Amino acid sequence: MSRRPATVLLIWISIVFVSAVDSQAQGILWSGPMISFTNLAGSDWTQAANQDRLTDDVWLTRSTTRGIFNAAPGLESSYTKFLSPSGTEWAYGVLANYATLTYTDWQTWNGGQFNVPSMVGQSAVVHLINSDIYLALTFTSWGGNGGGFSYERSTPLAVPEPGSVELFISVAVLVVAFRAPRKNKSVKPCSGS
Question: Do residues 76 and 86 make contact, with C-beta atoms less than 8 angstroms apart?
């Protein structure tokens, strides 16, 4: 292997490594359009229409009493104080400040079991821990007995996954490097006659 391809390969490996580490450290921000989700009072929490299925392992819902929980398969079938909804962390604030916010469980975040309605209308950021996703969420209603709640939340942007642009650039650099014309460094003497 000549020196030039080895140097290019080393640069390419460095770019891919740094991009992978950088995208993992930042998390994924769902800063797309806001959508509304409503769980009506008295609804059957086991039905898909009454669950906000954010990812494969975070499905937010509520039964007829108590707080929200994660109904994804194998996780929770009811609300558990200071744990539900599992796989999430909550903070008051805006998505632009996600990295500086202090996250906690849902019950601590909203001020305890009897202070839940105070969260209505306040901007929050939810961290989906396993997927390292951060999204904006604002509760718009909270029902008492009989359950029910509603909120607006952000959605993913329709852009390439983190790192895919860096990967494209890396491949392009490799293609250009290996296709670039090479100078012939050996000099043959000219015979003059």
Answer: yes
What does the pLDDT look like over 173-190, one tens digit per residue?
555 555 655 555 555 666
Least Cα distance to 39 among 122, 136, 143 occurs for: 143
- Helix, strand, coil shares, percent, the chain, to 5: 30, 25, 45
Q: Is residue 141 part of a domain?
A: yes
* CA trace torsion 139, 144, 147, 148 (10° rounding): -30
Instruction: Give per-residue pLDDT as tens, 23-56.
Output: 445 899 999 999 999 999 999 999 999 999 999 9
- Give the three-class secondary structure for 176: helix
- Contact between 135 and 125 under an 8 Å Cβ cutoff? The reply is yes
Domain membership of residue 14 as a residue range = 3-24+162-179
Does some domain include residue 188? no
Question: What's the rounded Cα separation, in Å, for the pair 161 and 154?
Answer: 17
| pTM of the predicted structure, to 2 decimals | 0.70
